[in-house]
Design goal:
The chain is of the alpha/beta class. It is about 35% helix and about 15% strand. It has nine helices and twelve strands. The strands form three sheets. It has an eight-stranded parallel beta barrel with strand order 1-2-5-6-7-8-9-10, surrounded by five helices. Helix 4 (about 105-115) links the parallel strand 5 and strand 6 (about 125-130). The longest helix is centred in the last third of the chain and has 23 residues, at about 210-230. The protein starts with a helix and ends in a 24-residue tail after the last strand.
Amino acid sequence: MHLSTVLSLALAILPIAVRARGSLGYAIGARNPDKNCKSTTDYEADFEALIQKGGLGDIKRVRTYAVEDDIYQDNVCSVASAILPAAKAKGFQVILGLSADTETKYLSEKQALSSILTSEYAPTVYALTVGSESLYRGVDACELLPRIVDAKTTFGNTVKRIGTVDSWNKFQDGTADPIITGICPRKDPVPGTTFLLVNAFGYWQGQNIDNATATYLDDLQQAIGHIQDLAGLGTVEIMNGETGWPSDGGTPYLSAQPSTVNEEIFFKTGVCTMLALGVDVFYFEGFDESWKPLSKSDTGVPNDETHWGAFYDNRTPKFSLDCPTFG
């Protein structure tokens, strides 16, 4: 399918007003290949690679997943304290994630961020996201909403945008409605959340590469359309929080086959189409995370998540990350 055809299809199905080209950003991991925590110097090297070869426009933006990465309890990474000085030095904006699947975890993250988010580094923080696919993992929206409200109360004078990020289907099927509207049963209504990141992967829909972009566009259309139906057009700032495709060495998922060739195809058709429509996209992810242990997919098959980067873990790009010209 020609890129102009893909763009025409997207214009037909996405309920958004086309504006200037969207901004490409990257999800960034917290650890080096040896599992040790990234330092400010490491993040600066990441950012320099993205500046040189990452296909970024005038806006340079990344997102993270936690204030403190504690996947290894004996080696907890203070993500925010390391990445914010690097962002300031390299002119990047950061969407900082706060883990929030439980009240205990959220309070710990909030306390850690409170000591880090000083006036020196606050201007580098574009937004805060409270929870990352929390609804997808079974957290009730009316359990998550008070944490978002509390984050607004705590950090709202410093950070303009505070919201959450979740899988496209949790926005499409109504699961996230209380977060969008601010309305929960037997509770006083609160203002709805006006900053949302929507994750969508043709890969995790099990699509072959020929159908992956159409699936990705349609999934986002359904999620964005539902959000706008509830909140009104232009009321909520919506970004594509994650999308991507694994390269050689990844784990197949149904009809989706990992390969560097397929990753480039999806990037050039799916990601570049969304950017051309004026939607901001975060590619998952910036760099391979070769330290990651195997996880389990929805089908129960062991899943290798070490090959999702646009760059190898030595900061070499796998292919050109410049988007083609549509027309």
